[in-house]
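By convention, each integer encodes one residue's backbone shape. The lines below illustrate.
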Amino acid sequence: MDIGAFAMRWNLVGPGSANLTWGADDELLELRTTYVGDGLRSLLRAALDLRNGSNASIASLPTEPGAHVFLFGGAAEQVYVQILFLRDEYAADPWLGARRRWAGRIRVDDFVTATADMAQAVLDQHGEAGYRRAWRDIPFPNRELARLQEPVASRPTPDE
């Protein structure tokens, strides 16, 4: 399935807890997460990987003891995304019994933009101090957001 319209929203819903809304075309998926794995930073890093030319990445939103795992593969202009739910990420084989919650192809640029917009909205709404309070003293991922918001041309090349 190729996605035309895509957006994400991150809502802090309590101390150390957040909901991610994944909106692809007319389909909405609500995913709960906790501060344990720093899911917002994980999604920003996956977006950075893809923006910087990687053809694959992974992100995780822990739910204690489970997790939602985002697998990004085959990236070029679009990337194939699978969101899997692991019942117990600490099990000997956490992939056993994994359930796919969503799958489809998204334009890499759309994912990168949606991820940066989502993180910026969290920062605008809560500020660094508010995020840190809500997220159990874990700092807001400023560095990752700033790198994702840099114009592509201003990023240093490996030879610089």
